[in-house]
Amino acid sequence: MLFKVEMVVNIPLDADPAVMDAIKKQEKEYSQNLQKSGKWRHIWRVAGQYANVSIFDVESNEELHNLLLALPLYPYMEMKVEALCRHPSSIREDDR
Ligand SMILES: O=C(O)CC1=CCC(=O)O1
């Protein structure tokens, strides 16, 4: 099951920079492990924003929910999730 997830990161101005740097490091490792597994298929920075657009490929809504809630930056994020399905004009066999 494919999902588009838009994540906007809002870090409070009074947050401790050292603590946030540690959380961002954890976030990167968590994200890259999921990308290697194929569950986090794509991630793009939204130009000019502390935000990303990502594509997830998961087995269920519940799996996506659990992956997103486990993001180290989750407490600082706003998210929008949309379900995707294959476009009839797609030439990519792995779009499903
Ligand atoms: O910087 C972001 O957009 C938040 C984020 C998600 C995965 C990651 O590595 O950073």
TrEMBL record:
Name of protein: Muconolactone Delta-isomerase
Ranges where the Muconolactone isomerase domain occurs: 1-89
Family according to the record: Belongs to the muconolactone Delta-isomerase family.
Catalytic reaction list: (S)-muconolactone = (4,5-dihydro-5-oxofuran-2-yl)-acetate
GO molecular function: muconolactone delta-isomerase activity
UniProt subunit comment: Homodecamer.
Pathway(s) this gene product operates in, as recorded in its UniProt entry: Aromatic compound metabolism; beta-ketoadipate pathway; 5-oxo-4,5-dihydro-2-furylacetate from catechol: step 3/3
EC number: 5.3.3.4
Keyword vocabulary terms for this entry: Aromatic hydrocarbons catabolism, Isomerase
Species whose genome carries this gene: Eoetvoesiella caeni
InterPro entries recorded: Dimeric_a/b-barrel, MLI_dom, Muconolactone_d_Isoase
GO biological process, one term: beta-ketoadipate pathway
Catalytic EC class: isomerase
